[in-house]
Amino acid sequence: MGLLDGKVAIITGAGGGLGEAYATLFAKEGAAVVVNDLGSSLDGFGASAAAEKVVAKIVAAGGRAVANGDDVSTVTGGQNILRAAIDAFGHVDILICNAGILRDRTFAKISEEDWDLVVKVHLKGTYCCSLPVWNWLKDNRRPGVIIMTSSTSGLFGNFGQANYGAAKAGIYGLIRVLSIEGRKYGIRVMGVAPNAITRMWADVPGTREGEPDPILRPENVAPGVLFMASDLAADHSGKVLAVSGEEIAEIKMLMTEGFQPKGSYTAQDVAARASSVFFPADLKRVLPKA
């Protein structure tokens, strides 16, 4: 028996890289998979038959899958992706929002087009795909799981990725809100901040040099996402996991003890109590690069 027997999963951006690794493993674990991919280049141009190739591989291995080439960043596209699942398999249980593009620039050089398109694909695309699945699960009183892709570029920052980081930080906020709203419907919402060598990772500033580390293959992220999507994680929602072949760890928002002024205070009061307001300077650890 597989961890996802009888489940139907929609995976966006599944024509290669992380999405392909998720789709292949999910199918192996018993899920029927909608493989969505527009097949565009890394910066969002063009289209290809990437989804069809992944579907062919899954079917050849004895799995069930259908291809979908709709644009995740439009409301119509999100609706069509859900419809592909319902038409092919009758229902949906899992959504993995994985599709993304990059247009990396330092902040001073980001054009409005570069900003809008990256935010549209990542943040709006997560909205466009999640909303129809959310409403279908809610209206059909069916529990489900939505996993959204954030990034340490948004949660901790990364040079040259202001547009991408802002979108990924926005997704973190969406995860937190929907995990609260989803409680009454039995909808779990989680996030993954993956660290793997894909075509996106390979073009991140500062990561182009050197040979790829095989431990950072997309296939080493997929089991962590499978855990989140399966009943093994039934008690978890609203949480973001950093996942790679090197480490699996939760990332969460924290507050210091702070100081409580009990009313009026001055800027000098804040400065005098800086040690309780800020985290200690030595409170740090090595973070993933993507």
TrEMBL record:
Keywords: Oxidoreductase. The keyword DNA-binding does not apply. Signal peptide: none annotated. InterPro entries: KR_dom (IPR057326), NAD(P)-bd_dom_sf (IPR036291), Peroxisomal_Beta-Oxidation (IPR051687), Sc_DH/Rdtase_CS (IPR020904), SDR_fam (IPR002347). One of its GO terms (molecular function) is oxidoreductase activity. The keyword Oxidoreductase applies. It holds the Pfam family adh_short. Residues 7-204 form the Ketoreductase domain. Coiled coil: none annotated. Belongs to the short-chain dehydrogenases/reductases (SDR) family. This is SDR family NAD(P)-dependent oxidoreductase. It comes from Bradyrhizobium cytisi.
